[in-house]
């Protein structure tokens, strides 16, 4: 039998419970258990005037932003429409059926003012890490570090040849932010190599073709994650150059120790983090095992002996060549001991002309020079340690665990929709990366921690 036709009609009263309407297994219901924002009002209090009209509740704005980043709603205008219409979103925002959704412009005003002044989004992210630690899903034994390029909100069709060519008349907030981070190691001071083009709309974004294919303007999203359940323990925005990413790894490791008391026994990363300086910092200064491939350019391709063919004698601080002769750092005794280290942290070990001149292996060793010379980094001990670790079974496990951070970046771009930034400038990138990392941690908590059954009554 055909059912009755639905006729639009306005009822005067409804018996409707928003609480009952949201399914027990809804993502936002699972996330809501871990969103604790009661501290936000206290943190923001100094940034509000004591007089004037009451503002929009900051907790409501943060809850709306979390919906946007957890559910891949990138536009704040669309977010407001969705929260207005979606009952589960209204439930998560504590809006009820008739609560008023703020205008999208409210987010922009608060972001450029109170939220950044109080570093609110950073604290929000840190709160999710503390929650993960409290739930016991952060092991703390091993961390993985990696970075992923995220397209900036800047047209690749437009670009000035240098920052000096930018029109000062049209200076925007993004240009002001670019000037503010010129000496910052994560941005302007990361490299002395000038970019090929500078975007007039977001000059701090780096013109890069590092991902292969067409070049574009980008920022780097740096993640430090715990290997046990891939919880993001720190996040940092940098310009898209490798030196900035390595600096960010050091910043994040130090900050994680200071903020959460987490200090890993091993760090897993790709070759980009395997420079001598980085390995030296990890091993000699921090006591962390580097599960990182060594960045090594000493291998020769012209058929002559590479450095690997020479044996280093640690006790006597010298190399033994394939012809069983010694290559020494210094042959003379100096009254004032000399370090003999150049600006790049390299020491030179030399054979004698006498040894090489009469050697049958010279054509395969140093055919164009009177004697062989080897370079050794002051961090070579740390590099040797990384090479030894690379031969172990634990290292093979670490290589597999490194995939976890790549999965997080893939999820960030494909599911959460952060393949391109919506906000401009270094602060815009920071805001988006903090919110996205907080959303990913909350989704992780929702997935891993089962809903506890209510305690029996009576
Ligand atoms: S050429 Fe010199 S350094 Fe090379 S194997 Fe012969 S003696 Fe050793």
UniProtKB/TrEMBL annotation:
Residues 17-112 form the Transposase InsH N-terminal domain. InterPro entries: Tnp_DDE_dom, Transposase_InsH_N. Residues 352-446 form the Transposase DDE domain. This is IS5/IS1182 family transposase. It comes from Falsiroseomonas bella. The lineage of its organism: Bacteria, Pseudomonadati, Pseudomonadota, Alphaproteobacteria, Acetobacterales.
């Amino acid at each position: 039998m055909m059912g009755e036709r639905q006729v639009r009609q306005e009822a005067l009263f409804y018996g409707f419970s928003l609480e009952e309407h949201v399914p027990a297994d809804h993502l936002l219901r699972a996330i809501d258990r871990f969103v604790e924002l009661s501290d936000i009002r206290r943190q923001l209090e100094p940034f509000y005037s004591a007089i004037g009209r009451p503002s929009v509740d900051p907790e409501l704005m943060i809850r709306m932003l979390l919906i946007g980043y957890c559910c891949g709603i990138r536009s704040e205008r669309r977010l407001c429409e969705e929260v207005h219409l979606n009952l589960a979103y209204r439930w998560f925002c504590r809006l009820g059926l008739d609560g008023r959704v703020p205008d999208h412009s409210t987010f922009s005003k608060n972001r450029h003012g109170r939220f950044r002044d109080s570093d609110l989004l950073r604290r929000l992210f840190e709160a999710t890490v503390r929650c993960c630690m409290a739930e016991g899903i952060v092991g703390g034994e091993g961390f993985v570090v990696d970075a992923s390029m995220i397209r900036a909100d800047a047209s690749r069709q437009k670009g000035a040849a240098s920052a000096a060519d930018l029109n000062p008349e049209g200076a925007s907030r993004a240009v002001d932010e670019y000037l503010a981070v010129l000496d910052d190691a994560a941005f302007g001071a990361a490299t002395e190599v000038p970019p090929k083009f500078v975007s007039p709309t977001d000059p701090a974004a780096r013109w890069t073709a590092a991902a292969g294919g067409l070049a574009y303007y980008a920022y780097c999203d740096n993640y430090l994650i715990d290997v046990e359940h891939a919880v993001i323990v720190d996040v940092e925005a940098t310009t898209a150059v490798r030196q900035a990413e390595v600096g960010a790894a050091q910043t994040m490791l130090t900050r994680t120790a200071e903020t959460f008391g987490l200090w890993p026994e091993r760090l897993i990363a790709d070759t980009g983090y395997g420079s001598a300086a980085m390995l030296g910092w990890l091993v000699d200064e921090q006591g962390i095992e580097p599960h990182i491939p060594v960045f090594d350019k000493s291998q020769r391709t012209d058929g002559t002996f590479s450095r690997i063919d020479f044996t280093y004698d640690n006790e006597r601080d010298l190399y033994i060549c394939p012809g069983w002769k010694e290559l020494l750092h210094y042959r003379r005794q100096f009254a004032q001991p000399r370090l003999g280290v150049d600006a790049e942290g390299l020491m030179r070990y030399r054979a004698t002309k006498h040894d090489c001149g009469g050697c049958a292996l010279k054509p395969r060793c140093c055919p164009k020079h009177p004697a062989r010379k080897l370079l050794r980094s002051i961090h070579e001990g740390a590099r040797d340690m990384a090479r030894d670790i690379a031969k172990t079974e634990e290292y093979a496990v670490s290589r597999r665990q490194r995939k976890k951070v790549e999965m997080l970046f893939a999820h960030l771009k494909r599911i959460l929709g952060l393949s391109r930034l919506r906000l401009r400038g270094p602060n815009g990138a920071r805001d988006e990366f903090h919110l996205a990392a907080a959303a990913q941690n909350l989704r992780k908590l929702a997935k891993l921690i089962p809903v506890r059954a209510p305690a029996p009554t009576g």
